[in-house]
Design brief:
seven-stranded mixed β-sheet
Length: 123
């Protein structure tokens, strides 16, 4: 059974950086794709980024390309999302999600979900 626990959310100013972590137990190496979705108030949940393996396969939403980086520390079974140059429109609840086995070459379907962590970017 895959279990996902997020951490690292918070309140920052526009232009700042923040790093999210997702501890992914039961989700091993190439058998599992792990990543992030986000949901802003009044909007649908949207895909942000995902990684398969140790980082040889990544995918990003166009809105975060060049600003966000995702990678996985397999020794710690943890996925990280480094978010730079944050904008107010990045404000959302960020959810860690996983597919086991990987099911999409472009993103995540979302077989498993974490509880979410709030990211708020003030202007």
């Amino acid at each position: 059974q895959v279990q996902l626990v997020e951490s690292g959310g918070g309140l920052v100013q526009a232009g700042d950086s923040l790093r999210l972590s997702c501890a992914a137990s039961g989700c091993t190496f190439r058998r599992c794709a792990v990543g992030w979705f986000r949901q802003a108030p009044g909007k649908e949940r949207e895909f942000v980024a995902r990684v398969i393996g140790s980082g040889d396969s990544t995918a990003y939403a166009d809105s975060v390309k060049g600003r966000f980086t995702i990678w996985r520390d397999n020794a710690k079974n943890t996925v990280y999302l480094q978010m730079n140059s944050l904008k107010p429109e990045d404000t959302a609840v960020y959810y860690c999600a996983a597919d086991s086995p990987p099911r999409s070459p472009y993103g995540l379907v979302g077989d498993y979900w974490g509880q979410g962590t709030q990211v708020t970017v003030s202007s």
